[in-house]
Amino acid sequence: MAIWNSRFQKSFDKGALKFSSSIDIDGKLYNEDIEGSKAHVKMLMKQKIISTSDGNAILKALEEIRKEISNGKLNFDWQKEDIHSLIEERLVEKIGERGKRLHTARSRNDQIALDERLFLRKEINIVSKLITDFQKALLKQAQQNKSTIISGYTHLQQAQPILFAHHLIAYISMLQRDKERFNDLMKRVNLSPLGAAALAGTSLPIDRNIVAKNLGMNGIILNSLDAVADRDVLIEFINDCSIVMMHLSRFSEEMILWSSQEFSFAKIDDSFATGSSLMPQKKNPDIAELIRGKVGRVYGSLIGILTIMKSLPLAYNRDMQEDKVHLLEATTTTKDSLLMATELLNNTKFNKNRFEKELDGNLLLSTDLVDYLVRKQVPFRKAHQMVGEIVALCIQRNIKLNQLPIQEYKQFSVKFEEDVFELLTARKSIENKISQGSTSPQEVEKQILFWKKELSNSLKEKKQNIHNNKKNIK
Ligand code: ARG
User: What does UniProt give as GO cellular component (predicted)?
Assistant: First the structure.
């Protein structure tokens, strides 16, 4: 018989129960459920709502149940409906009547809301750490590729030469914002909904703040309806995961391009590539493709949870049980993808000399010619037009910019002199950049130093600061 069954004449239909059962999903929150229950019991004891001896018996049995679950001894029977009922029924089985006091002044509505927040709190820290690991892998490659030159692109058309390190650091910056988003979310997550009871609060003399404090939370969600009805923090979390996945899929896409024969730039270690069952020569970047593909799951979860919450009247509705499907899907996929992206990058070598020669004298140095003329007082728009004509001429003759004789340059502008050819190498183009945050070796070095410091700090910070978001927020 279910824990709520006494007012019914008949027991719940088997098929309906199976349809309602969520234990396969919320069973994954058993640790959080027990942690929350223990904090609740301690408060009930302190407030003298239950006796110390009953409370202690419950606390002890809850710990035993935790072990039974982690050892696989307690079966997740779907007929038990959800993890809350399973644990409570097991408790009563173990210690009898005393176990029946656990749920005093509590509802499964505030209980699940708390479990989810405890879960999010833990996962935010894990995801942040995985992001830092990926950033470190990017930084390591950046340090190894401080002078590797590649073409930078816009519209996937060659634009200007850049240092590969510069390109990688762009990802470090993107991921840093992802981490900040999670850290900022922590201050909204780490609040306790417990004590809201079903929706209206309770007539028993509980102390909500003691529970929050005991759990290391920064306070309570005051309004009891809001406490049980809100799932905003889950939506935010899945949104933040979606942005991480979007970033990972851009990175994956580039890894896939770079490892193609046409680019021949990235060499993925054999242990992270796959072959074809038909074409013997194939070496495929499946891991990158899978990360790119798995984005669909996380975006799906975001739309899923937004759709569940849309139009729900206050307060709790059973629809909300489905939120955990999306929460767990997004969490697992994001963590797995971050881990794999890190491993993939750590197991990839880049061909440092792949592009430099090809880019010397190449049309992608046109902007350097424009800047040359601008430095000689030619108005920018005029210089742009002249260089455009030079480009057209080179295309017509199928030559590079550095193959056009100086006399011909002079026909476009008398400002052109022999020294123009010094500009026409990829490396010179990069070295000539002077603006802040540009791709010049000095600016890239500054960025590398900045991230080295930042990423070693972030680890120290995390160690002292498991869920105290206050210090975490920049
Ligand atoms: N398994 C439920 C969920 O995850 C717990 C809350 C059930 N509350 C209720 N009133 N049926 O949403």
Answer: cytosol
